[in-house]
From TrEMBL:
Putative regulatory subunit of serine/threonine-protein phosphatase 4. The keyword Phosphoprotein applies. Its main location: cytoplasm. It comes from the Eukaryota. It comes from Melopsittacus undulatus. GO terms for cellular component: cytosol; protein serine/threonine phosphatase complex. This is Serine/threonine-protein phosphatase 4 regulatory subunit 4. Keywords: Coiled coil, Cytoplasm, Phosphoprotein, Repeat.
Amino acid sequence: MHPIIIFSKMDFSQSNLFGYIEDLQELTIIERPVRRSLKTPEEIERLTVDEELSDIERAVYLLSSGQDIQGTSVVANLPVLMRQNPAETLRRVLPKIREVLHVAGVEMQLTAAVSFLTVLQEELVSIHTYSHSFLHIILQHLEHRDAGVSNAWLETLLAVIEALPKETVRHEILNPLVSKAQLSQTLQSRLVSCKIMGKLANKFEAHIIKRDILPLVKSLCQDAEFEVRSCMCRQLEHIAQAIGAELTKTVVLPELVELARDEGSSVRLAAFETLVNLLDMFDADDRSQTVLPLVKSFCEKSFKADETILVSLSFHLGKLCNGLYGIFTPEQHLRFFEFYKKLSTLGLQQENGHNDNQLQVQTLEQEKKYILIRKNCAYNFPAMIVFVDPKNFHLELYSIFFCLCHDPEVPVRHTMALSFYEVAKLLNSGVYTIHKELVTLLQDESLEVLDALVGHLPEILELMTNGGENCGSENKLLSIPDLITALTTAEQRAATSLKWRTHEKLLQKYACLPHIISSDQIYYRFLHRMLTIILTNNVLPVQKAAARTLCVYLRYNRKQEQRHEVIQKLIEQLGQGKSYWNRLRFLDTCEFIMELFSKSFFCKYFFLPVLELTHDPVANVRMKLCYLLPKVKSTLRIPTDKHLLQQLELCIRKLLCQEKDKDVLTIVKRTVLELDRMEISVDAEQLEKEKQQNEGRSTNINNKIFEKKRRDSKTSSVLAKSITLSVPGSSSATPAGKEDKKSKLVRSQSFSTQALHPKYNTLDKCPNKSSATGYMSSVSGMGKNCMLPFTDDSFRTHSGGNSGNAAFPSSSSRNLYNSADQKSSGNKEIQSRKMNIKSRKSNS
């Protein structure tokens, strides 16, 4: 076959021809860098390393004469070398790394900082060895000209400080820090010193901090550069927590007051945030006389300043209001609340079409900051409920809550969805007032909002339907229809999206619905939907989540007709479905049923349908069934489920004899070994009942036998008397012989009566447990045709196999014994009677 060329699609006019040429030229330009990136033979030769070199020798060679990328690879591989050969790595490789780092680029520096931190975190060497070998290298590169590299080494050093002994920290870090923090040092050096002092505060006692560190702190708080003052101000929180409340009041608070009035906005912002974080350490006097005036001034100037100030203020406002709650006057309380209301709608246009603060057209950066401010207001909404009092929610805060839940920006609504559960808990009896907002968020167009709400959905729904004394039955009944519609809409939207994790999470949380709504509502609105998802969805985690939730719905459904209908559908559409995928999901569903339901329920409805899958034509289904068989066997109870145990053993035997797939057969044999170690639970109550029934039957039989023996003995004594009194002769001997034969026949029947009831022997009375030894005999003795018989107790008790015959004689052999004994005893009795008659005749 030759390719068909359609010339009608090609236009070779002059204009199009030049277009094709230009396209070809662009392609050649694109390909040129690819050709240039190929290595020349000389470059390949330089990059080639002798394969016979050891890892240590190769590392040393690459660090000495290799290219930068090879050296970076060795530095990244340093933790591996330390695990394999720490002594040689420290002796030969680490000195080479120290030499290379002096002239290394940014990539190798960053890699080295990460590798050094990994060696510390994984404790590949002792802390003494680490401080001797690695610490000096870290300290040398703290003031690297690249800010990213400097910060990477600083993070490594801060982690090392926590692990180092105090004396090492004092000599190697604290003492040199005195000179590094001087004004004469570089800006980078002083910034590093600020961050190190914040970490050192947690390492030493208060008196050492007061003597050695606080003088440096004061000096850096008054540094000429605002970056240093701001950085040191943010470390004051760690220092205050280390020195305690008294020193904080006398040393730290005055510095914060001064920094809060600093000319630099970033310094004032750092001072404000530090004051808010340290509110718990200040007493009431300090809060009212020192902190509150500073905060008021900061808030009043915030709208005139940069929006960055408002972003920070909106984030800390909830903590600030609750921290100063006890010292607010009613006027101050109202002022801060109004300030929060203003922030929560900042950037939104009102109904009259004008902006709330009469700003002009906003820039993109301003809009982003306004969105962030409203997001922070949503984050602080639970704290503001506490500030205002939940009793005043409907009057004071509901309008703000409504606006935030309907905000045009997804991040704001997402934050409200995250905090919705906290709001519902705080409202308690008034939770019914926010039902409409729950429905709104459930039906939100963004799945991110739905995903945030789903996390605490069961708790929210329970509060909605059962929370509070004032939430009467009338409110519950009115709220449920909207709620059900919102829940179904949310699931359908999640199902049609590509975010299957949100769909899975939602289905898992819907398992709470039996505690929220009625069984009929679940049956008609949710249960069949779960079955449809199992049958039609293509995502396995989603199918499993739907299967488990369906089993929960079935567990709480008390209507037998609905239960039987669902069970029938599960068996027919999943267990007997045409698709092997559906049959696999049936096994998953059965696993959930064993988890959620009683053992008797599973055995009654699902045990045999599961075993039918041993004949499944797909190997994966049979394989999954084999993995499930130990759990299936654990549902059995003896003697109630003896017949099911026999079916299980027959299925195992068929798999062993008929399975052709080698992978499945391997798993079958492994499963047989596991089944052999299992012990089946015994139903003691049922066992006792059967024992009592058997004892009652045996008692009745013994009584009947005793009565027959007694009647037979009377009959034999009468016959004996008649024989001794009768006149001897041939004519009279014949009837007496007939009567004697009849009595012997009666005795023979009565003696053999017990042998005619083998089911009452002791083997059937006490089947205490049934081991799976038949599995092992089948595996060990499996030949070409798999002819080895089963020796399981359940088979012995039911069919009286070979092992039963070995322990007890069969009924036929016992009948033979009894008849033989009766014949011999009867002959001896006749002979004795004949001797008596002869002796009497001779005497006469």
